[in-house]
Each structure stands twice: as structure tokens, then as C-alpha cells.
Design goal:
Blueprint: H1 8-22, E1 30-36, E2 43-53, E3 56-60, H2 67-75, E4 77-82, E5 85-93, H3 99-109, H4 111-114, E6 138-143
Antiparallel strand pairs: 1-2, 1-4, 2-3, 3-6, 4-5, 5-6
């Protein structure tokens, strides 16, 4: 399972972006994802880019099987936070067969910030994403009652 360790600069930028999103700033697709730790039970947060594609919402992990991904796999639950708004969600892993289209949409939409995590350039045909499906966890967001 692929996991790209964040650099010191990545950690600083993520922390700053997380603080901004938590107080309600950031772009419309920026959210803070809060997830309960699978080992500690503590709540951890990380900034994420929410992708809306064909009437569904997705989270993609461009750095691979990060800690938030492993925690989500264990619990399938999380909270999206922006400012004073909180949305409890369930996260459903999508199959490798349906990932190429979502990965392409994600890379094409957020290429400025995530291109460095992909071996192929934004704008590539959807077929080029098929060999990459095992490297990138993708979750469909399902609202919780």
C-alpha cells in the first residue's frame, strides 16, 4: 500500500489550512475531516478537498494509505467541518473498477495542489488511471442522519 509521508512544509501548510478552514475560511471544496483514531480513540483532523462529481461527493487520498484513510477504513465514519458547520458522514470505499473516472476528475479539478502525487499529468485519458487504482483510496461520502 502506497503512502507518501508529508514533508515538514506539507505539515506546516496542512496545519495552517486546517486552522483557516476550521474558522470558516478557504475555498468551497476545502473541509476539515475529523476522524476517530482506530487505536487511541482520539479525534484527529486533516484538511481535505471534497470532489463533487456526477451528483455524488467523494474524498480522494492523493498521498495513499495515510492515517486518516486507515482510521476511516476502520470506522467508516467521520465529520466534515467548515466554520461552525459540522456534517456527520459515512464513507464508503468505491471499487477499483469505478475509481479511474473519479481519480481523473479529482486530478483535473485540483491539479495545482495534487499533481505531484500522480505519476500521470492532469488531462490524461481515463484509461491511463486504471493501473493507478490500487494506490489511491477513494471514498463516496454518504450523509448520516
Amino acid at each position: 500500500m502506497r503512502f507518501d509521508q508529508p514533508s515538514l512544509l506539507d505539515r506546516i501548510v496542512n496545519r495552517a489550512l486546517g486552522c483557516l478552514v476550521k474558522i470558516g475560511l478557504g475555498l468551497s471544496h476545502n473541509f476539515l475531516l475529523e476522524v476517530r483514531g482506530r487505536k487511541t480513540g482520539g479525534v484527529y483532523s486533516t484538511p481535505v478537498n471534497l470532489l463533487e462529481h456526477k451528483g455524488k461527493r467523494y474524498l480522494v487520498a492523493p498521498r495513499g494509505y495515510t492515517q486518516w484513510v486507515r482510521n476511516v477504513i476502520a470506522s467508516q465514519e467521520a465529520t466534515l467541518v467548515k466554520g461552525g458547520q459540522r456534517e456527520n458522514i459515512r464513507l464508503h470505499r468505491i471499487s477499483d473498477e469505478t475509481k479511474p473516472e473519479v481519480l481523473k476528475a479529482y486530478l483535473d479539478r485540483y491539479k495545482l495542489t495534487v499533481q505531484r502525487y500522480f505519476a500521470i499529468p492532469a488531462g490524461s485519458p481515463v484509461e491511463d488511471f486504471k493501473p493507478l487504482t490500487g494506490e489511491y483510496p477513494v471514498f463516496e461520502i454518504i450523509s448520516s442522519p
